[in-house]
């Protein structure tokens, strides 16, 4: 009896871990409601987001007018050197998975758009939630009127989700 209840506990804990990890993966609509467009302030948008391994970026834009080009490095990003692209996407809607920690650089491939600010730098933290950023908050403005607190709302929702599963697991273990 003792052995079997411990086994069930283990299975339930593994299940919670898997579900929690899935629930924490988020899809980020690049540029928020304004989408992938020259008028969007991507610095502000990106600094308000937390990107984790397993999350996805969703680029939404007018097909033919814009595209998405992944640049190889920071200097290509700074100088809008579209020629060094690692990947390019078009069609108006692209989903890109952030499969590992690190920084990735995206710009629009349409002539002149990157120079107008249509570019974004995405820094992905490890899935355990630890962030490599240390002093980035110093350059972040305290708040902008247009920014929505969607990140904190989402994480409190995820916390409730995890708590719910922990509660269910405790009940299961208690009644065995
Ligand atoms: Cu463009």
TrEMBL record:
Is Endoplasmic reticulum included in the keywords of this UniProt record? Answer: no
Keywords, ordered alphabetically: Membrane, Signal, Transmembrane, Transmembrane helix
Under the heading Gene3D superfamilies, the entry gives: Cupredoxins - blue copper proteins
Indicate yes or no for the key word tRNA-binding.
no
Q: Where is the Phytocyanin domain?
A: 26-126
Record SUPFAM superfamilies: Cupredoxins
Indicate the secretion signal residues: 1-25
The protein's matches in PROSITE patterns, at most eight in alphabetical order, are given as: PHYTOCYANIN
Q: Which residues cross the membrane?
A: 158-175
Q: What is this protein called?
A: Phytocyanin domain-containing protein
Query: Source species, please?
Result: Rehmannia glutinosa (Chinese foxglove)
């Amino acid at each position: 009896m003792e052995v079997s209840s411990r086994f069930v506990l283990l299975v339930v804990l593994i299940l919670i871990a898997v579900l929690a990890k899935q629930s924490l993966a988020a899809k980020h609509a690049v540029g928020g409601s304004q989408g992938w467009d020259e008028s969007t302030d991507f610095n502000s948008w990106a600094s308000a987001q937390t990107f984790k391994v397993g999350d996805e970026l969703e680029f939404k834009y007018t097909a033919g007018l814009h595209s998405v080009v992944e640049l190889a490095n920071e200097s290509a990003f700074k100088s809008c050197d579209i020629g060094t692209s690692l990947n390019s996407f078009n069609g108006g809607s692209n989903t890109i998975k952030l499969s590992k920690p690190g920084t990735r650089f995206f710009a629009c491939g349409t002539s002149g758009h990157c120079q107008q600010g249509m570019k974004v730098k995405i820094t992905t933290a490890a899935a355990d939630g630890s962030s490599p950023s240390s002093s980035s908050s110093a350059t972040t403005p305290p708040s902008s009127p247009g920014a929505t607190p969607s990140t904190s709302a989402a994480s409190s929702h995820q916390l409730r989700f995890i708590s719910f599963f922990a509660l269910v697991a405790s009940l299961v273990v208690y009644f065995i």
